[in-house]
Model the fold of this input.
Amino acid sequence: MKVINENTITDAALEQMSSTPNPRLRTIMASLVRHLHDFAREVDLTPEEWLEGIRFLTAVGQKCTPHRQEFILLSDTLGMSSLVNALHDKRATGPATKSSLLGPFYRQDAPEMRLGDSIIAHSKGTEVVFYGRVLDGNGRGIPNALIQIWEPDETGNYDLQKHDPSVMDLRGCFHADKEGRYHLRGLCPLGYMIPMDGPVGDMIRAQKRHGYRPAHVHFVISAPGCRELVTALYIAGDEHIDSDTVFGVSESLIVSVNRNDPASPLPNLPSIRYDFRLTAEQGAGISGRVGADPAQLGQKAG
Ligand code: BEZ
Ligand code: FE
Done:
């Protein structure tokens, strides 16, 4: 009979799990258990503290609905989503735009629109033109690339956070032209506080963090033969640009609003110009998404 104590428990658990046939699952679970046990030993975790952790995770799960994803919010606020994005970016085989957070407000079925259309359905605020090109690793335009965009309204809320979350606003799907060019209209991006009315908000307050994201706009860009890009553009000068609560900002994703841009396809409006670069696909079905439409995440896979 093996003696189970604080030093032998890790090997005992690893030994039982070593029969896992899937080699990647075996590696991931073994590492997770090793780190989890080391964490408990390092902080000398008490039963009350562990139960509090279990209570917290239970509350995170209970907060999730088809319109709310508290686990994604937790992953984002712990820096885990950005870490997984950075590892994903490191695996790119060529030059590519950096990833940024998908966040909890992506929606699968945003309306199809035509180049030049506005994604503003119900909101008010300063209109801007987003324009540029979608390029491959060699700097050539990708014809017909799919551009999905979403942003919050002038009060800092996404449509999913509104009274009737089935009403879509400030999101759309566009196809680039044959040279990979795109232009579309939306609201000038604003900053906002992440949802604070759940257990993640309690955690943020307990840590005395401000809870704000700098002004930004989200994109998912894809094209056949290319790796999907999940990213966001951040507005220079925002007061939270260096202290994003969810660690999404990279220097190469910071843009300025240009109020006098003769090259803009709609020069009467302020404009934000950005060329996105996609790297070649590295195996079918490799997604850059840390997250999903919350309505999809609640459903059992397969
Ligand atoms: C967002 O940018 O939509 C977002 C990302 C992480 C947490 C909350 C919101
Ligand atoms: Fe956002």
About this structure: Residues 23-43 form the longest helix (21 residues). The pocket of benzoic acid (ligand 1) is lined by residues 73, 76, 101, 103-105, 194, 213, 246 (CB under 6 Å).
